[in-house]
Amino acid sequence: MKPLGSDQTAIQYLRYKFLGEEPLKDFIGLRPDTLCNYKCVSCKQVKGSCKTSEKEFQDILAEHGRQRVICSISGGEPLLTNEHFLRVLQHTRLCSTLGLYPTLFSNCHDLDGRKVEMLLEAGLKRLTTAFYGPDAASHDKWRGVPGSFVAQYRALKLICEKKRESRQEFELIVSMVFFRQNFRQLSEMIQMLGDIFGDEIDRLDFFPIKEYADLYLSEEDVDYFKGELLPRLLVQLHSYGFDVAGRKLQEILEGNPEDGVYGILPECCYSSHTSLYVSGHERLIYPCGYMSDYAERHPESAVVLGKVGEKLDLSKLKTLPMPICQSLCGPVVKGHNRRAQRAVEIMQAMPDLEQVLRLPSYENQLVLRLRREYIAMRDEKAFYRK
Ligand code: SF4
Ligand code: SF4
Asked: Which of 79-88, 280-289, 343-352 has the least mean pLDDT?
């Protein structure tokens, strides 16, 4: 079964707000280290080796994990060496044993058929990989490594093959990273991915690069994107059945330059109440992966929830989102926060909310009590639901 998403986030937020109880998590990010074989133009990660023990990772998963909690394993490149691969296998197996939903972000450069099979056998539920261009000339340039297009293309073919053969639940997500210098090639990227891998890709995704002025879309770029490119891309995406990707693009572009181009954040970061992100090389725990990236460059102003092995300081959540989140946070998180905000608004309007929250099985009670409102919300405001 898939994770619950923004409804669960909203319920946990209300529990925290009204009862002061530590919210249960629905997302745990594990970044053991930041070592990588690529040099992507959009990546400013500082390289660092893992200083967190397996036992400590296991304790974190055991303490905060439960059924359907997403565990996202990333890096750096999490499959960089055989040792890395074995660690990913170990984490994936542990997640499966605990009932979590293990997912992996990888450039898949060295993935072979046997490794894909082993990951699937370990219970991997989702793999996300990214493309920066429709061909070797552009992709390799932005990835910073000659041969990366060929390697990733080959790996994607293998993954699709093994996915077809496997009967288990497994999602393949391919993300298109775009920025000022490559967004005009999005149509070719969609065609390349749609024509060859369209049947096996469960979700095509877009990842706009923010924060770095040299990669940011200018106002003119956004005008062109919205006015000319987007209508064509929506038709193209629809022809491959990638309608969710089309909606995502619209969500990304609904912002305006004053709001930071890629859309304004809600007043509260609901996601941070239900997520945590472990940076293994720093031995620190952040509210989200964006904050972890930001902390590498601005350690003095980032929000840290605690150190590995120590109790988390939840009072820090009250300061989120920070002004800088406007340019850090992705449209996915913004959309999730907006959906959670809407669910919170609906729930807060319940006259007996506090009593319901005090019921022993408060989550079930809430879902039951709010079913009618949720249905109304879904029917009238489809935007707030998946
Ligand atoms: S593959 Fe990921 S971690 Fe490696 S350089 Fe690219 S963005 Fe950074
Ligand atoms: S960047 Fe800020 S708003 Fe976005 S998820 Fe992280 S803490 Fe929340």
From this structure: 343-352
Is residue 148 in contact with ligand 1, taking CB distance under 6 Å?
no
Mean pLDDT on 229-258: 85
**Distance separating alpha carbons of residues 177 and 39, to the nearest angstrom:** 14
Ligand 1 mean position, distance from CA 31 (Å)? 12
For the Cβ of 328 lying below 6 angstroms from any atom of ligand 2, the answer is yes
Domain 22-259: CATH architecture, name and number where available: Alpha-Beta Barrel (3.20)
Determine if ligand 1 sits within 6 Å of the CB of residue 289. no
State if residue 272 touches ligand 2 by the CB under 6 angstroms criterion: yes
Ligand 2 centroid distance, CA of 263 (Å): 13
What is the pLDDT at residue 308? 97
234-242 long-range Cβ contacts below 8 angstroms, 24+ apart: 236/187, 236/190, 236/191, 236/194, 237/190, 237/204, 239/194, 240/190, 240/194, 240/198, 240/204, 241/198, 242/190, 242/194, 242/198, 242/201, 242/203, 242/204
Percent of the chain with pLDDT over 90: 59
The ranges assigned to domains in the chain are 22-259
